[in-house]
Write a sequence for this structure.
């Protein structure tokens, strides 16, 4: 799965550059992330339906929220726009 994810991630930039000729960069970045969110939601629902249990994760503390917000803004908002 990791190799497939790496190949798809590597292929996404050249394919996005081809699509960029007809679509605004911010819109294309938003659509790519929307597709990713829909795909992950489908995967999550599938695992929930199959009752696959994951390992327990660490709790999110209040002190972690500024770092989480910065990571979301940098990696989820600014990076895709700058990439396009």
């Amino acid at each position: 799965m990791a190799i497939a994810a790496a190949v798809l991630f590597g292929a996404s930039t050249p394919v996005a550059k081809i699509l960029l000729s007809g679509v605004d960069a911010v819109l294309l970045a938003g659509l790519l992330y929307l597709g990713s969110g829909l795909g992950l939601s489908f995967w999550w629902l599938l695992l929930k339906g199959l009752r696959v249990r994951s390992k327990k994760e660490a709790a999110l503390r209040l002190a972690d929220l500024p770092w989480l917000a910065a990571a979301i803004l940098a990696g989820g908002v600014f990076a895709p726009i700058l990439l396009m």
Q: What stands out?
A: The first helix runs from residue 2 to 19. The mean pLDDT is 83. Residues 2 and 81 are 25 Å apart (CA to CA).
